[in-house]
Design brief:
The strands form four sheets. The protein has a six-stranded mixed beta sheet with strand order 7-6-3-2-1-9, with no helix packed on it. A five-stranded antiparallel beta sheet has the order 13-14-10-8-15, with no helix packed on it. By secondary structure, the chain is mainly β. It is built from no helices and 15 strands.
């Protein structure tokens, strides 16, 4: 299998196109993800104390005021078929955190790989026709914060689509010569009590990796 063109996922907000993330399939059907940040903004990780989640709850409150900035210029996240998850910079140096998930051959599909959370669309870099395939997500003018889930799927069994809360989903991305694909779903961030969409966007984009079966 030759080198695949990257898939560029672009947000269209009030007629302006900005870069959300790029998805690259590897020769061995591993996947590389580049989440875009506002120009000049370093990689940031929200704060949060898991001990404050409360008994019987899986929700961890996020603290966007007390974030951390690792001394690492993150470029992309790699999900290898072997289960290794690598965070690398543009020089292919790895962020050594020892993160590993299950091998693709050991999991039942579909399997959620990660969540991607953008900041305000107008803060992201402009999309100016970079090389690759483009998938546009049109946002309504009153859009609030949302998150996207990327799910590993069997290329021979793409998921059926129905109307979701924001878009018709899942969107199945399949690649020539690959036995695995990626399905995209998109969800509004809701208040835990009122179940209404929150008005405030996070001040920076971030991601959440799944490392367990």
């Amino acid at each position: 299998m030759g080198r695949q063109l990257p898939l560029r996922v672009v947000l269209v907000y009030k007629g302006v196109k900005t870069k959300f993330f790029s998805l690259f399939p590897g020769k061995d059907n591993s996947f590389y993800i580049h989440l875009y940040r506002p120009p000049g903004q370093p990689w940031r990780i929200p704060g949060g104390d898991p001990s404050k989640a409360g008994d019987g709850r899986s929700i961890i409150p996020l603290d966007f005021a007390n974030f951390s900035e690792p001394h690492f210029d993150l470029h992309k996240v790699t999900f290898h078929r072997s289960g290794y998850i690598h965070l690398t910079d543009k020089e292919r140096r790895r962020y050594r955190d020892g993160v590993r998930g299950p091998a693709f051959g050991d999991i039942a599909l579909p399997y959620d790989l990660c969540l991607l959370v953008p900041c305000k669309p107008q803060m992201l870099p402009m999309h100016e026709g970079q090389r690759g395939l483009v998938f546009e997500i049109g946002l309504h003018d009153e859009i609030g914060p949302f998150w996207v889930c990327l799910t590993l799927i069997d290329a021979l069994s793409p998921l059926p689509a129905t109307q979701g809360p924001l878009i018709r989903q899942p969107v199945n991305f399949l690649f020539p010569g690959c036995d695995k694909g990626i399905a995209l779903t998109m969800w509004p961030v809701l208040d835990e009590v009122t179940r209404k969409q929150l008005p405030d966007w996070p001040p920076f984009p971030f991601f959440v990796l799944r490392i367990g079966a």
